[in-house]
Amino acid sequence: MDNCIFCKIAAKQIPSKSVYEDDDLIAFHDINPASPVHFLIVPKQHIATLSDCDEKHAALLGRMMVLAPRLAEQLGCGYQGDGTGNGSGGFKTQFNTGPDGGQEVYHLHLHVMGGPRPWRGQR
Ligand code: AMP
Ligand code: ZN
């Protein structure tokens, strides 16, 4: 897709601080982090928004979600706990979709935000 910044990052035409890459996905640090750890998981294929996804994207979306905790762990913000609310660490995962969803870059991406609080604008 011409003039898409995340297509250009995926094609290495513009630089990014890489976190992960495989045949289908890349992950890189957000240039304007909202939290101490803030990276984006991005399919190499150009898909504009989550609303453009259907059943045939289910496996790709699943891989993005499964990758999030693995990379969060590697970057020091994994969830350490017993699954009951006890424990420490953790992160937010977020897809922004469309104008009312606050989407700025129209190439599908999953935000992963973690690290010690306070975060920008949050306690
Ligand atoms: P969204 O509002 O969900 O579309 O978020 C787009 C995100 O992409 C924002 O958090 C930006 O800071 C981030 N971003 C934009 N350009 C770049 C870039 N060249 N490298 C890394 N992150 C970027
Ligand atoms: Zn794109």
Structure description:
- The structure is a single chain.
- A hairpin with a 5-residue loop joins β4 and β5.
- The N and C termini lie far apart (38 Å).
- It contains two helices and seven strands.
- The strands form two sheets. The protein has a five-stranded antiparallel beta sheet with strand order 1-2-3-7-6, with helices on one face. It has a two-stranded antiparallel sheet with strand order 4-5.
- It has helices at 5-10, 58-74, and strands spanning 18-21, 25-29, 37-43, 80-81, 87-88, 91-94, 110-114.
- It binds adenosine monophosphate and zinc ion.
- Zinc ion (ZN) binds at residues 1, 4, 6-7, 46, 107.
- Ranges where pLDDT stays below 50 over 5 or more residues in a row are none
Q: Termini distance?
A: 38 Å
Bound molecules: adenosine monophosphate, zinc ion
Structure classification: alpha+beta
Instruction: Give the DSSP E fraction (strand runs of 2 or more residues).
Output: 15-25%
How do the strands of the widest beta sheet line up side by side?
1-2-3-7-6
Any idea what the radius of gyration is?
15 Å
Run of helices and strands: HEEEHEEEE
Tell me the number of strands: 7
Helix content: 10-25%
Determine the number of helices (DSSP H or I, runs of at least 4 residues).
2
Shape: globular
Q: The biggest beta sheet, please? A: 5 strands, antiparallel
- Give the overall pLDDT as a whole number: 97
